Amino acid sequence: MGVKLGILGLGTVGTGTVQLIQDCAGRHPLLQDVEIYRVGVRSPDKPRAVKLPTSVFTTDLAGIVTDPQVDIVVEVIGGLEPARSLILKAIEHGKHVVTANKAVISRFGDEIFTAANQAGVYVMLEAAVGGGIPVIQPLKQSLSVNRIHAVTGIVNGTTNYILTRMQTEGSSFDDVLADAQRLGYAEADPTADVDGLDAADKIAILASLAFAGRIKLQDVYCEGIRQVSKTDITYADKLGFVIKLLAIAKTVNPPPISPSGYLSVRVHPTLVPKAHPLASINGVYNAILIEGEPIQQGMFFGPGAGAGPTASAVSSDILHLVAALKSSTATPNPLLTCAHQDYCQIAPIEELVTRFYARFLTKDQPGVIGKLGTCFGKYGVSLESVVQTGFQGELAEIVVVTHDVREGDFRQALAEIRTLETVDSIPSLLRVL
Amino acid sequence: MGVKLGILGLGTVGTGTVQLIQDCAGRHPLLQDVEIYRVGVRSPDKPRAVKLPTSVFTTDLAGIVTDPQVDIVVEVIGGLEPARSLILKAIEHGKHVVTANKAVISRFGDEIFTAANQAGVYVMLEAAVGGGIPVIQPLKQSLSVNRIHAVTGIVNGTTNYILTRMQTEGSSFDDVLADAQRLGYAEADPTADVDGLDAADKIAILASLAFAGRIKLQDVYCEGIRQVSKTDITYADKLGFVIKLLAIAKTVNPPPISPSGYLSVRVHPTLVPKAHPLASINGVYNAILIEGEPIQQGMFFGPGAGAGPTASAVSSDILHLVAALKSSTATPNPLLTCAHQDYCQIAPIEELVTRFYARFLTKDQPGVIGKLGTCFGKYGVSLESVVQTGFQGELAEIVVVTHDVREGDFRQALAEIRTLETVDSIPSLLRVL
Known about the structure:
Chain A is an alpha/beta fold. Chain A has 3 domains: 3-132 and 308-340, Rossmann fold (3-Layer(aba) Sandwich); 136-302, Dihydrodipicolinate Reductase, domain 2; 353-432, Alpha-Beta Plaits. Chain A is 33% helix and 27% strand. Chain A is built from 13 helices and 18 strands. In chain A, strands 7, 8, 9, 10, 11, 12, 13, 14, 15, 16, 17 and 18 form a 12-stranded mixed β-sheet that branches. The first copy, chain A, is elongated and about 80 Å long. Strand 12 of chain A pairs antiparallel with strand 12 of chain B.
């Protein structure tokens, strides 16, 4: 009478999930109804950290997702293919799906959820964002009575680890990255993390849930942390900020009340005021801040990755499905589905209104700040603070923080400033929360 | 075809909930199926911040909970009676119940959940703890795949506001309390808040959900913040701590795996290391940190009270019930019920193993620290740090922080220290996280 799982993949997350289910005393009693029926792996004979009957293993992953005995398919192989095709085939065969695959969901969520809604099955994805932190279900359930205005997250542990060490040790990006790779906190190819692509996948998913509309991943503006220098971290600190890689999805004023709103969705290094709740999230931790009406604020915090936390999230999805199957709902529970079908409209980055931090290297001549100020004024950029900070060789270093300004206007001002004879270069340009 | 609400009380929370439901564009579409059918108030003719047909109002609260038309009773009158009796009568008449009433649930949860399980109805209580922060549902659902080891919370906004101001302004408890009362952050009778009783209600509820057993409120050890002095806040700061009123429920080692574990459940002012996630929770904010296996950590943060956040929580419970009613479950959804019936066993406070902070006033004589140390050693208390901090008039002030020690042993040592001729008094005694 158990609910039968077909697990695709037995890597770190799959192993953690099997361990949790096999060792279920002291956990929710419904987990006792779960049977690990099939596990699809590449090498059935490989030694494993978990004990399972030989008959459970198979190399035939397509056979699992079409097996009439399987109730729930747990996709933890990662990557785009064959994960996408297996998920779609599982749905076609009436299986509920649990996946930890942010890359597949952020790119193919459209076809996956359309197929799931047609087939009347659930696709659960708690583990795709924020490790073990329950944030997907709260967004689908409890928080959905709110009109969400903004989701702001530190959703990539690797970059937060690197930025935290740069901050505390005064080290350079390259040095900390190399050390993080040595310690296993960063991949040999760190692109997905340090260039913000992983965070972009995650904010696309969070935005879709928070604003009840689909998101085209290519609309998400994405800038990584390679350009963040220890110089900027030091200046930010003096000005009362820390630098974090934020993933932000926000309604563009006035907050629309239609389900498919006009949004700004972006990932970029950001100066965060030290008193802000996200400023104290350090190391490999993740945190997601939700702002809305009438809740005001809610923040979720925890380790953003790792076998244990991710297994907790995958298992919580399994638990939700077992509960739904056990209470034999006549129609799908609307708090577990992703029913929205419209696309959210995403504003181009030029339309963003934000504060900026910029660092200039100029000739050491009187009147330079005046010239910068005149040029900014021409494009409607007003300055919150201007600090002549010191010298780099012969050149004077000037740091400005602007008031809120339209990004397009600010960039026009910068283009003109670059033509000034007294300006050598603009080594840094960062947004300010 | 709407789901009919009978709302008991139209104070701050009731009004916020009605406003949210009446203004439902841009929220979860299921809220459109909710009908505000009856609102029970004392004075139907009183001017209200919300517009409702006169026919909705009634002074007959018992009539609402027995009305066959009512599907869900929303109890937001607060206080013990008639809230308890009305909730029980509603259950008896087959109504699902949403309540924000921590006092009733922490005292009468036993009879309420027993009645609800017998009647096959749900009693939802998201708003009872942590304002709008979704923490009750995550504990019942996503987090319940974990073996929880500890729940540690700042769950009372008033005391956190007072302690934060004492910390930042160097003011005394009495001065800040008076000002907080003037500003409306503390009640005219602040007992429930400052003596920790409100926090005790909340940790009893959280512990019950986290450890899947019932909790006797009188077993919860409770100490408020009246004795916290600005002197101690200053010393704590120097030693790397902030002082917070923590509500803690924790398994006593070894972590038991039976559902009704052996627990330490308590509320007391606590020295929290500055790097701890709870240390940076300031002002009226609440935060609840959950530790367990395999999730490691998860923290939930947000405003702990207020009409908006609380209305968000009440409405999210209504949403869960509407979803359950709409998907016409044959049997109750086990992730919405509170099925546990055993009582957790609570360890007496003497058995607690913790670090302590203590401040002594002694005669200014050589060898005093040695005498303290000898006395501590006799009872197995080892010291992490000893600081002779200064003088109060003729008396020397000595602050110690211990290593982990059994509370009973520590108190025996203190009793003997009090008899020392060189010791004048022990003005402060606080636990350290």
